[in-house]
Amino acid sequence: MKILIVNGSPRGTRGATFGVVEYFMKGAKEAGASVDVLHLTQYKINHCTGCFSCWTNTPGKCIHKDDVENLFPRLDVDLLVLATPVYVDGMTGLMKNFLDRLIPLSSGKVEIVNGHSRHPSRYGKKHGERKLALISVSGFPELDNFDPLVKHVEAVAKNMQSEFVGAILRPNAWIIPHMLERNAPVEDIIEAVVQSGKDIVQHGEFDRNTLNIISREIMPAEKVAELISQGFQ
Ligand SMILES: Cc1cc2nc3c(=O)[nH]c(=O)nc-3n(C[C@H](O)[C@H](O)[C@H](O)COP(=O)(O)O)c2cc1C
Questions:
Q1: Residue 175's closest CA among 231, 219, 222?
Q2: CA–CA dist 28, 53 (Å, integer)
Q3: Ligand 1 centroid distance, CA of 147 (Å)
Q4: Could you say which of 3.40.710.10, 3.40.50.300, 3.40.50.360, 3.40.640.10 is the CATH number of the domain covering 2-231?
Q5: One digit per residue, pLDDT tens: the chain, 233 residues?
Q6: Domain spans of the chain, in order of start
Q7: Whole-angstrom Cα distance, residue 224 to residue 233?
Q8: 86 alpha carbon to ligand 1 midpoint, in Å?
Q9: Rounded to 5 degrees, what are φ and ψ at 202?
Q10: Which is nearest to 32 in space by CA: 186, 222, 199?
């Protein structure tokens, strides 16, 4: 299985998002997958201007001469994993800019697929051949912080005519390094992330119990609030 993980955290390899991604990669590689990681911070990605030149004047080609077009071949994978922290209840601007810039990969034509209007793919994987997953972390401890993002990524998968295979969600992720420093018990979470990487390669799906361990409470919300607020006194 070929996997591409797109890391949309502005903190790149230093971020909590990549902290989770690294363990997922470990599991996926151990299960035999080839895994590529794209840190969006390392590339020049202008935002889409909405000119539609990529559908009209220069089909398949964007007006921007930046790094995006060179990244297209890397998207030709079996599983695309969007990895982003929750920013203002959604994905980061970096990730959204990147997704907007994938428009040249579709044609401007419209076809009806499963009762919904869609733009057919121009290159690469045929629709339905590529699966899509989400890895996300949040600052707040409540799991419902991910609800709008998960809904959005499910819709993105439908838009790309890919099967959404699920989400690895780690609320309150910044606390994990602190817990590890203090030898507090969070190894089960780390092992579950590694296991989720293995599961998706070996079984094509995530295990619900494993995902629940990844998302489990580490500290009651009141305690987290106290801890954060202390730091700002
Ligand atoms: C601009 C901004 C907006 C954020 N919005 C939210 C939010 O809506 N909900 C939340 O739980 N955390 C929010 N966070 C916290 C991040 O999700 C959290 O710090 C995360 O661990 C960052 O991951 P990273 O280290 O990979 O960048 C926000 C952080 C920033 C910088």
A1: 219
A2: 38
A3: 14
A4: 3.40.50.360
A5: 999 999 999 999 999 999 999 999 999 999 999 999 999 999 999 999 999 999 999 999 999 999 999 999 999 999 999 999 999 999 999 999 999 999 999 999 999 988 999 898 887 666 568 999 999 999 999 999 999 999 999 999 999 989 999 999 999 999 998 888 888 899 999 999 999 999 999 999 999 999 999 999 999 999 999 989 998 98
A6: 2-231
A7: 15
A8: 5
A9: -80, -35
A10: 199
Sort 73 into a burial class: Cβ within 10 Å, 0-12 / 13-18 / 19+: exposed
Structure tokens at 148: 């709008």
Instruction: Give the integer Cα–Cα distance in Å for 129 and 126.
Output: 6
**Which ligand 1 atom lies nearest to the CA of residue 173?**
21
CA 93, CA 109: separation in Å to the nearest integer?
Answer: 27
d(CA 195, CA 210): 7
Place of tokens 């838009």: 159
CA distances to 1, 86, 102, 145, 174 from 231, in Å: 44, 21, 40, 22, 14
pTM: 0.97
Question: Which residues does ligand 1 sit against, CB inside 6 Å?
Answer: 9, 11, 15-17, 85-89, 137-140, 145, 173-174
Residue 115 is encoded by which pair of tokens?
Answer: 């009762």
Residue of the CA atom closest to atom 4 of ligand 1 = 87
